[in-house]
Amino acid sequence: xxLVVQKYGGTSVGxxxxxxAVAHRLIEAKERGDRVVAVVSAMGDFTDELLSKAHAISxxxxxxxxxxxxxxxxxxxxxxxxxxxxxxxxxxISFTGAQAGIVSDSSHTKARIQEIHADRVNDALxxxxxxxxxxxxxxxxxxxxxxxxxxxxxxxAVAVAAGLGADVCEIYTDVDGVFTADPRIEPRARxxxxxxxxxxxxxxxxxxxxxxxxxxxxxxxHNVVIHxxxxxxxxxxxxxREADETxxxxxxxxxxxxxxxxxxxxxxxxxRPGVAAEVFGRLxxxxxxxxxxxxxxxxxxxxxxxxxxxxxxxxxxxxxVAAVTEALGARSFSVDESVAKVSLVGAxxxxxxxxxxxxxxxxADAGVNLDMISTSSIxxxxxxxxxxxxxxxxxxxEAFGLGEAFVIAETSPSAPGCEKR
Length: 421
Ligand code: ASP
Ligand code: MG
Prior knowledge:
The strands form six sheets. Strands 3-6-2-1-9-11-12-10 form an eight-stranded mixed sheet, sandwiched between helices. It is 33% helix and 26% strand. It is an alpha/beta fold and 421 residues long. It has helices at 16-31, 46-57, 63-87, 119-126, 153-164, 197-205, 213-222, 275-285, 314-328, 355-365, 389-399; strands spanning 3-8, 35-40, 92-95, 102-104, 113-116, 130-134, 137-139, 145-147, 168-173, 194-196, 226-230, 238-241, 254-258, 261-270, 293-295, 302-310, 332-336, 339-345, 372-376, 379-385, 406-408, 418-420. Helix 1 packs across helix 3, helix 6 runs antiparallel to helix 7 (213-222) and helix 10 (355-365) packs across helix 11. It folds into two domains: 3-174 and 194-246, Acetylglutamate kinase-like (Carbamate kinase, 3-Layer(aba) Sandwich); 248-421, VC0802-like (2-Layer Sandwich). A hairpin with a 7-residue loop joins strand 11 and strand 12 (238-241). Residues 9, 151, 154 line the site of magnesium ion.
């Protein structure tokens, strides 16, 4: 008898009909003889609606109250799903994050799960019930409700799977799996069958929206194999797991893009030790996330520093940068919200030279200007103008032949190192 964790995202439980269909799937799994735990998101756009209500009332709502509000979304789904299972003649019980024993730290709206006390869930499974857990929410040791950041139900599912020692962690969503690019931009994007934690981390961090970044980190740290599948069909989906020799040897796994960040530039700051520490220390103190950073070559003892930050942190970022501009006697600062980041991810770039050159050449030929560049050992990201993001994604997908599987060419190590299969 296997223990199965199945997570259903917002679209998969978007209507009462969809909730009945999910109930049916859970019952099917139970009837195959498995013990079944479901983790669910809020229905459809419910979380977005709650957010806009909060922002209609206040530009900066207190984060504790934001969590009180946002956690209600998932509670609607768990109750309706339990009712749907009962209506189909089976036993189920719903639990909030707190009731399921999910404990987090106290950083409201982006809390991290610390431990899971699974006794209640285990008891309910013993009683042969289907257990339904609200995703995205937890309780601090002090008894405060927290949420885990957008997309956090994925992390709940992986954490529950790790905590219960589940055999499978299936993430059901509205797409067939993880793709080589966003299929809405590049119709020739191909579903990836298997991908390593390492590559999935980079894809999730740079805009692939299928899995929350934190869920992949959690899965890697606890060695939970994630199976991403569509709740609208029976396709095989994508497996995310530790890399090994049996895995497809793609040089490049995918192209991702992200339009959720803005670029901030501080002009003419003095070029002396401690200045960057001052700028980024101030941003950190105000809880502003910073992604790419570039410092220009200095001229006459002055330099410019640019960085990107999530647009949702921009109010705080502007405040911090205004203060630091003043304190350092810098000339001015500016904010550009119409930027995008396009990234190429692939474990093969560690050993195959020429990937960056091909990336920059293809983008140049397509008339895309590069504003900032950053790399990791398996990723290259460029900040470009937001209006060129679709061109950039399609250009790179084409240039690296991602529509078809690209494999390491053992026979021609000298060339760019890639060959179509
Ligand atoms: N409902 C939350 C959100 O929309 C959590 C989730 O769906 O994973 O971000
Ligand atoms: Mg999601």
